[in-house]
Amino acid sequence: MNKLLDAKDNLLKTLDKNKVVTMYVCGPTVYNDPHIGNIRPLLTFDVLYRLLKLQGYKIHYVHNITDIDDKIIERANVLNVSEQEITTKYTKEYLAIMEAFNAYIPEIHKVSDEIDDIIDFINKLINNKYAYIVDNDVYFDVKKVKNYGEISHNKLSDLISNVRIENEKNKKDSLDFVLWKSTNQGLRWKAPWSEGRPGWHTECVVMINKYLGEQISIHGGGIDLKFPHHENENAQNYGVNNTCLADIFAYVGHLTINNQKMSKSLGNVVLAKDMLQQYEPEEIRWFFYQKYYGSPIDFSNEIMNDVKSQYHKIINQINIFKTKYYLKTHLLPESIMQFDDKFIAILNDDLNFANAISYIQNQTKELNKYIDNNNFQLLEKIYQFLLGDLWILGIHFKEIHTKQIIDLINEWNHYVELKDFTKSDELRKVLMDKKVM
Predict the structure, then answer these.
(1) E-assigned strands of 238-327?
(2) Is residue 28 reached through a cis peptide bond, with omega within 30 degrees of 0 on the bond before it?
(3) Residue 23, beta-bridge partner list
């Protein structure tokens, strides 16, 4: 078995360029609109995907959609519509959010399309004596896995004393979890044990095995998935394949709202679509890059306003440089992305977002600091590096130096040369409002 690593061991340094990097990131249960906490893992692994592709890694990246769940049934009953209507609507909403954030769309699979494979996988667990049937339900026997707790770094004895007991009378042990639930409610399928539907913890491990293999390079998601979800996935993989599910388990930290946990009871859930009404996608990305991806991050409007100011200061400085460059050369710097080895090295240090942002800030200052040195070749290269740096972070630099803006710059420069300062000051104010001067 390969060494089991947490992301703190640096998830990039352990990867082999000669092998395909297999990456699976847990997706949403589509019963409601995604909130901003759902977006942080999505954007983190989007940057990782971009970074690896750029460096020549071959990557097979899979993401799931959970479209079978009790919450979906409850939502459908409340709205008096079918489960399919709920899941279709919110799957589209989720994909639209991904597109709005300029995130790469990985290979996506829905749980409802994998039922036959899930049944086969559960059958293997039963045959291997890792699962048992009680009253038409199928449970996983946790005590059969000697390595149980290796993902969450918990001892089995501690977990038993702290676990929330649920349907204990049906199980051998309070930690045992359901693989197949017998039910006459909602969408259900015929299995050898009963008519019902799969348990949540089995869905992802089955898709990983089917599409990526018995052991993958990186398994990612939010920190809340470490236990019990990933622990239980990993246990099942031991039951079928006798190996750990992934070389690396990478977790993205919690998001809080004004230093409080986001919850419906507190009424502080912030939906991604609502946040996109208030802030640009690039501003939200920039917010998430303020902290190490594995650390908690707090959201507030005050923090976002500071982040927004920081982000636009960088973009404005780049556009002011372009204006200065044009005034000196009568050309705009060529907007071709190049990739800076120093910036890549910073992100290769376990996605060091904070240092990456500092580097971009320093490079932007360099542009305007050295414009009077007339080393246009160097300045153009720094500018092109910045475009590449922003691209790796999922930020598309928008070109605002249109023909209309260039004409205004030329007109302003004309009045400056005529020493008509009244007219030139008027035009300068217009150009400053447009963030190009």
Answers:
(1) 246-252, 255-257, 260-261, 297-299
(2) no
(3) 61, 218
Which is nearest to 239 in space by CA: 121, 157, 134?
121
What is the rounded distance in angstroms from the CA atom of residue 257 to the CA atom of residue 287?
13
Mean pLDDT over the full length of the chain? 93
pLDDT in tens, 134-163: 999 999 999 999 989 999 888 776 665 445
Q: Are 348 and 12 in contact (CB under 8 A)?
A: yes
Angstrom distance (rounded) from CA 256 to CA 266: 12
d(CA 156, CA 380) in angstroms, rounded, equals 59
- Please give the full DSSP string across 313-332, using - where no structure is assigned: HHHHHHHHHHHHHHHHHSSP
Q: Distance (Å, rounded) from C-alpha 65 to C-alpha 108?
A: 7
Cα separation, 5 vs 11, whole angstroms: 8
In this prediction, residue 53 carries a pLDDT of: 96
Nearest to residue 319, comparing CAs of 433, 413, 435? Answer: 435
> Over the range 342-379, which residues count as b (16 or more CB within 10 Å of their CB) and which as e?
ebbebbbebbbbeebbebbeebbebbeeebeeeeeeeb
Instruction: Give the C-alpha separation, 255 to 114, whole Å.
Output: 31
For residue 218, the one-letter residue type is I
Distance CA 375, CA 393 (A): 28
Average pLDDT of the segment spanning 326-350: 95
The strand pairing partners of 62, in sequence order, are 24, 107
Is the link from the previous residue into 333 a cis peptide, with omega within 30 of 0? no
Number of H helices, E strands in the chain: 15, 14
Q: Which amino acid is at 436?
A: V
Q: Return the structure tokens found at 278.
A: 């208030």
